[in-house]
Amino acid sequence: MKFSASQIAQLLEGEVVGNKDAEVSGLSKIDDGRKDTLSFLANPAYKEFIYSTEASLVIVSKNFEPEKALPENLTLIKVDDAYSAFAKLLELYNGIKYDRKGVSEKAMVDPSVTLGEDVYIGPGVVIEAGVKIGDGTKIFPQAYIGQNVRLGNSTLIHPAARILADCEIGSDCVIHSGVVIGGDGFGFAPNSENNYQKVAQIGNVIIEDHVEVGAGTTIDRATLGHTIVRKGAKIDNLIQIAHNVEIGENTVIAAQTGIAGSTKIGKNCMIGGQVGIVGHLTIADGVKIAAQSGIAQSIKEAGKIIQGSPAIPIGDFKRSYIGFKNLPDLMKEIKSLKEEIKNLKAPTHE
User: Fold this and answer.
1) Contact indicator for 221, 227 with CB cutoff of 8 Å
2) pTM for this entry
3) Residue of 226, 243, 280, 349 marked active site
4) Helices 327-345 and 314-325: crossing angle, nearest 10°?
5) Contact, 118 vs 137, CB < 8 A?
6) Domains in the chain, please, with CATH?
7) Which of 26, 222, 241, 291 is buried deepest, with most CB atoms within 10 A?
8) Does an H or E element contain 334, and which?
9) What residues of the chain score a pLDDT lower than 50?
């Protein structure tokens, strides 16, 4: 599918500088621009590439003024904010890309399933009894939807995702490939023979509206009650969220973080990659946790920024790091001082 510069400018409320009829059929990075593609320039660090790019169209901010000759066949689309405009265009592009409807003959859909309007069910999808699927939701090939699952409107389930029995996912969510929602929580109790007896996990997972869950992430069902991801939260790839955890609204969590059972995380938090969080803790609203930190105690002060393992306030961590970095020199100095003290204490012989 091709789009002209004038069509794109109209979508973005921008101004064409160059050939209004120039057409593109794909997207590319400005440092790897290809003919018949559209790119954008937002970061000044990439400014030099606009003078050599082979892209046919480039979105720039209105304050952009070329400092030398642009490529002969390049057309610009000037907008208020290039990054925001390109993000909007990507969203529209994705909408076209995923705009599919109908139920594949190769899907297995139980007769009791309730389907909304304009739903897409791809080949190899399995949908169990009692499922309800909202309008405009798309389920791509080889996904599995367990018994009594509820999916809201305009939610996108990518290939090979697994939504297990009784879980609920809201509207306008994105669940990426390899995600498992509703696997058993890690619940075992030692018995008299010093073995571990499995504790049945009979709760579910509730994911509210506008949540995105990255590839390979696992969100365990509650032992009792619910594991909850509140609206607007963004969960990266390869994250483990244990049973009965609650993630607050608009909280973002980077890859490889692990959150142990029954921990409650507030809204608008930012959690870096590879963070480990102990179970049964409370983390206040707006807390920021640096990557690779270990959280062993509740954080009750809203907006606090912490780092380290075990984590401490980020200012203390930076001061401690300076001391740690200078430790070899300090050890040499201490050794030298000990030698001087030893020599002072040594008896003198006249």
Assistant:
1) yes
2) 0.83
3) 243
4) 60
5) no
6) 3-97 (3.40.1390.10), 103-315 (2.160.10.10)
7) 241
8) helix 327-345
9) none
